[in-house]
Amino acid sequence: MSARVDLALLGVRGSLPVRRSAGAGPSDDGHLVINGINAAIPRNPLSPYVLEGDQILLDGSSEDLGLDVSAIDRPAFYDLRTDSGTEYEKIAKLHGRDVLASTVMQTCIRYDPAQRCRFCTIEESLRAGATVAVKKPAELAEVAEAAVRLDGVKQMVMTTGTSAAGDRGAKHLARCVRAVKAVVPQLPIQVQCEPPGDLATLTELREAGAESIGIHIESLDDAVRAQWMPGKATVSIGEYRAAWAEAVRVFGRNQVSTYLLIGLGEDPDELVDGARELIEMGVYPFVVPFRPHPGSLAVDVDFAQAPRADVVEAVTRRVAKELTAAGMAGSDQKAGCAACGACSVLQNVGG
Question: What is the pTM of this model?
Fold first, then answer.
């Protein structure tokens, strides 16, 4: 486990065919399969770990880490374009070996520096020309069909920046889900959004065809939220709790998840206690180490550092133990981040 945690924090050097350099969620990563489990590993030119073929070596040593490693091949659908000339890769990306992911709206009302989540780079990939601002439902469906047919994609994740509308972007997600399901009805989909103003919108997302949902809070500590995500912190924890409860009612137990980031300053014991409360609600706490990456305020302004490996491992093991006791596993989710598992090490310890 320790080597896997080190890789999650320190990253790796080497050629990684499937990678991304900015966007929503953890980024600047390359995608591998390690011991049979998806792994999104930071690409770090200063890492002491080097990927060579199917081995990860400590720099300057011929001794590998004893991990079963394989890189994800570049998918065939990346070579295609829509009729309007947009590259499929700018509409959706491969995550792990079989997950299609798209940020359906690449702008966020909270991206102003005074409100912006300090770990987020959602608009940087747009500024770099690596994506398009708003994904059209029909084009998403076109890409999804190709990804399933050509590359064996087995699930899809759709997230969104927060819009100024009362639904905070959820209704566009619903339109996108309907379009994809009309073309590949067998493809499980997770949607991700802030709590919509009207909780009935959660039912609309379910009826559109989404099988699971992520409503990501990142921290359950109000002081941490105010420091790290001042705009998002204006949505109270109480509103999140109401949304999680309704989402569990609509989507079912263990089909609702939320990110909890390790390393933002939240007390580890309180983080685990909060995760336990979420599990009791039927919500999967996807605990993920904070990974500072270029383009974020955390790196460019705060010079923030990744958390200590021993803290990440201890928190992850404790949360995994709670999940196991409750009979909840990420692999039991029909689609989404917890089902993929790449950005966390929970699945490595049975979570």
Answer: 0.94
